[in-house]
Amino acid sequence: MDSNFNSSDLQGAFNLLPAGSVSELASTSNFNTGQDTVNLLSFNFDMSYVGEWTLDAGLDAGFGAELFLDGVLVAERTDNLWWSNSWNNSDVFSVTLNNISIGEHTVELYWAEDCCSGNSSIRLTDARTGNVSALSSEAIAAASIPEPAGILLMSLGLLALARRR
Known about the structure:
Blueprint: H1 10-16, E1 21-24, E2 37-47, E3 51-58, E4 60-61, E5 65-69, E6 72-77, E7 81-82, E8 93-100, E9 103-113, E10 121-126, E11 132-134, H2 137-144, E12 160-164
Antiparallel strand pairs: 1-12, 2-9, 2-12, 3-8, 3-10, 4-7, 5-6, 5-9, 10-11
């Protein structure tokens, strides 16, 4: 990040930066993205019913965070977010996605950090079941297909974290 960094448009800032690294996350619990980074966590899913999810992002994000569903900005915070490893902290970036329609969708979470490089975690709550779990391919699959439909019907994109400096 340099003096031209625009913290009021994290998606735009991410797209302007030179390509960084792309990593598949084994877990979205207690991961670290480093400092002076703009980050993107993106995942695709195929919803088989109209549903509601809540994504909670416990981030170290000095420049805030933005969440997009299918390319549309649905929530943003522009303040310095540091959740202090507590889901009860007011700096948790919590977004409820209401009435997710049947079909394919993409969620993109952008955040930027200037210093300190603290741990981050992301979790998913399925309003239908009340199940709260770390964001993972398995959690997305379980929340996308109502029981007893088979997981084989699920088409998941790569859960990936991209980072640019």
